[in-house]
């Protein structure tokens, strides 16, 4: 962007350049989050290189920029996810989908699920943002038999997935790009069949 706009020296950058850059992102319908990240990164950059004048103005106008970004897309859950799951052709895909439903894990995270039987916890290491997610069923199970059953079902599903992964490679199971064994292809077909 800087080269396109004839800026090749840091001392020549003005706040107007930074404002134009962020406004261009807004015009291109970038998301609120992307604009926040860009504005924050620019502010830190200008603080680091000693351009407090620009960093301070960015700080003052920060909310104005990101509030004009595109609102986050709403994901729509299925009205009947079980109907979608039963319409999946591949039994491994049914296992993955049910694990996702019961744990909230992303497709790529289901293979990373660890079951802590002693403490009745489901652990998903290095999930979104590099964080480890922990779903603790122990306390909930004391008061709610359904939660104890839920933990047992998740553990059973994870054992099934591990068995399938010994027989088939994860890349083959997950697929992608419309490959024959693609989870996504099977899921799209199941969604249509379920009327979702």
Number of helices: 10
Poorly predicted regions are none
Strand order in space, largest sheet: 1-2-3
User: Distance between termini?
Assistant: 42 Å
Mean pLDDT score: 84
Spatial extent as radius of gyration: 24 Å
Share of residues in helices = 55-70%
Kindly estimate the percentage of residues that lie in beta strands according to DSSP: 5-15%
Give a count of the beta strands, DSSP E runs of length 2 or more: 3
Largest sheet: 3 strands, antiparallel
Provide the succession of SSEs.
Answer: HHHHHHEEEHHHH
Envelope shape: elongated
The secondary-structure class comes to mainly alpha
Q: Care to describe what's here?
A:
The chain has 196 residues and is mostly helical. Helices cover 58% and strands 6% of the residues. It is built from 10 helices and 3 strands, in the order H-H-H-H-H-H-E-E-E-H-H-H-H. The chain has helices at 15-27, 32-48, 52-66, 81-86, 91-103, 107-110, 138-143, 145-167, 170-174, 183-194, and strands spanning 114-116, 121-124, 133-136. Strands 1-2-3 form a 3-stranded antiparallel beta sheet. Helix 1 (15-27) runs antiparallel to helix 2 (32-48), helix 2 runs antiparallel to helix 3 and helix 5 packs antiparallel against helix 8. 20% of the residues are buried.
Considering the chains and any ligands shown, give keywords for the structure.
196 residues; three-stranded antiparallel sheet
Short description:
By secondary structure, the protein is mainly α. Helices cover 58% and strands 6% of the residues. The protein has helices spanning 15-27, 32-48, 52-66, 81-86, 91-103, 107-110, 138-143, 145-167, 170-174, 183-194, and strands at 114-116, 121-124, 133-136.
């Amino acid at each position: 962007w800087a080269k396109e706009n004839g800026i090749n020296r840091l001392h020549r950058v003005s706040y107007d350049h930074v404002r134009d850059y962020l406004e261009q992102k807004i015009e291109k319908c970038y998301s609120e989050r992307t604009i926040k990240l860009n504005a924050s990164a620019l502010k830190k950059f200008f603080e680091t290189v000693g351009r407090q004048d620009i960093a301070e103005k960015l700080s003052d106008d920060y909310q104005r920029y990101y509030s004009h970004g595109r609102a986050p897309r709403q994901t729509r859950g299925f009205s009947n996810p079980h109907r979608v799951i039963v319409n999946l052709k591949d039994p491994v895909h049914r296992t993955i989908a049910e694990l996702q439903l019961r744990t909230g894990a992303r497709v790529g995270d289901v293979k990373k699920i660890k079951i802590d039987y002693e403490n009745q916890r489901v652990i998903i290491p290095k999930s979104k943002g590099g964080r480890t997610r922990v779903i603790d069923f122990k306390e909930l199970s004391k008061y709610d038999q359904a939660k104890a059953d839920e933990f047992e079902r998740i553990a059973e599903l994870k054992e099934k997935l591990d068995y399938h992964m010994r027989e088939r490679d994860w890349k083959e199971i997950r697929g992608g790009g419309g490959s024959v064994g693609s989870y996504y292809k099977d899921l799209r077909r199941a969604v249509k069949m379920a009327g979702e």
